[in-house]
Design goal:
Number of helices: 8
CATH superfamily of the largest domain: Fructose-1,6-Bisphosphatase, subunit A, domain 1
CATH architecture of the largest domain: 2-Layer Sandwich
Structural class: alpha+beta
Strand content: 25-35%
Distance between the termini: 49 Å
Helix content: 25-40%
Low-confidence stretches: none
Number of strands: 15
Number of domains: 2
CATH topology of the largest domain: Fructose-1,6-Bisphosphatase, Chain A, domain 1
Shape: globular
Order of helices and strands: HEEHEEEHEEEEEEHHEHEHEEH
C-alpha cells in the first residue's frame, strides 16, 4: 500500500468535499437531531457521500467507517474513517472552526491522517514515519515541559460533566496558566502545531481521534486516553500534544478519579 499515494488521493477528494461544505456554510440550513441528540445537517450528509464514493471507487477492497453512514467492510485490513463535519455545532453557528477528518487504518491503527479546515483554508496531514505537515510547513508540538504555565485546550464543560470527570476540568483550571475551550479537531490541531501545549477531549469517537493520533505522533507528540492507554482510539476520550504535558494530565486524571463524588 502506497501511503503517499493514498494521502494525495485523499487530499484531492477533500478539495471537492470542502467546496460542498462551504456551499452550505453560513446559510439558512436545516438542523436535525440524531439518536444521540447531536445535530446533523445536509452538509454532513453530502460531504460524507462525496468522500465515500471517491474512496470506494479508488480503493474498492478497503473498508470505510463514517460518522453519518456507518461501516462498510469494517473488518478489512485497510479501513478509512470519515468525519464529514467535525464541529457541526460550530458549522451551524457560522464559526469557521469546523473540520473534515480522514484517516486510513491498517489493522486498526491509523497510518495516515488528514485534518482539513475548509473555512480557514488550512489542511494538516501525516503519514506514518514521514512527519506531520501543513502545506510545506513541518508541524511540531510545543516544548513547554510542565503543566504549570501551560496553555491547555479542552472540550466543552458540559462534556466533562456528562462523562463524570468535572474534577479533571476544575483541576486543569487551577493548575494550568491558561485553559480555553477549543472545539473538536481544531483544538487537537492547535496542540499538533504547538500553538497550545495539550488538548484534553472527554467525548468523541474513532473518526474524530484516528487522524489526530497519527498526526500528533508524527509531530513529535503523544496521544493517549483517560485510562492511560497510549494510542487507543476507541475509548471515547483523548489527550494529545506535548508528551510531558500529556503525561502530567494523565497523572492528574488518576488523581481526579480518586476524588469522584
Amino acid at each position: 500500500m502506497d501511503l503517499l499515494e493514498a494521502k494525495n488521493a485523499a487530499l484531492s477528494f477533500l478539495k471537492i468535499s470542502s467546496k460542498e461544505a462551504i456551499r452550505w456554510f453560513r446559510t439558512d440550513i436545516k438542523v436535525e437531531s440524531k439518536s444521540d441528540l447531536s445535530p446533523v445537517t445536509i452538509a454532513d450528509l453530502k460531504v460524507e457521500e462525496i468522500l465515500r464514493k471517491k474512496i470506494s471507487k479508488a480503493y474498492p477492497n478497503h473498508g470505510i467507517l463514517g460518522e453519518e453512514f456507518g461501516g462498510e467492510n469494517p473488518k478489512s485490513e485497510w479501513v478509512w474513517t470519515i468525519d464529514p463535519i467535525d464541529g457541526t455545532r460550530s458549522f451551524i453557528r457560522g464559526l469557521p472552526l469546523f473540520a473534515t477528518l480522514i484517516s486510513l487504518l491498517h489493522k486498526g491503527d491509523p497510518v495516515m491522517g488528514i485534518i482539513a479546515l475548509p473555512a480557514l483554508n488550512e489542511t494538516a496531514w501525516a503519514i506514518k514515519g514521514k512527519g506531520a505537515f501543513s502545506g510545506n510547513q513541518r508541524l511540531h508540538v510545543s516544548s513547554h515541559n510542565i503543566l504549570k504555565g501551560a496553555f491547555v485546550g479542552t472540550g466543552d464543560k458540559y462534556c466533562f460533566k456528562e462523562k463524570k470527570c468535572i474534577n479533571l476540568y476544575n483541576k486543569l483550571h487551577r493548575e494550568a496558566e491558561i485553559v480555553r475551550t477549543y472545539p473538536d479537531a481544531f483544538g487537537h490541531l492547535m496542540a499538533i502545531r504547538g500553538a497550545i501545549d495539550v488538548m484534553v477531549d472527554p467525548w468523541a469517537y474513532i473518526w474524530d481521534f484516528a487522524p489526530c493520533k497519527i498526526i500528533v505522533q508524527e509531530a513529535g507528540g503523544e496521544f493517549a486516553n483517560f485510562t492511560g492507554t497510549k494510542g487507543e482510539i476507541n475509548m471515547g476520550n483523548a489527550i494529545s500534544g506535548n508528551p510531558k504535558i500529556v503525561k502530567a494530565v494523565k497523572k492528574m486524571i488518576r488523581g481526579a478519579a480518586n476524588q469522584k463524588k
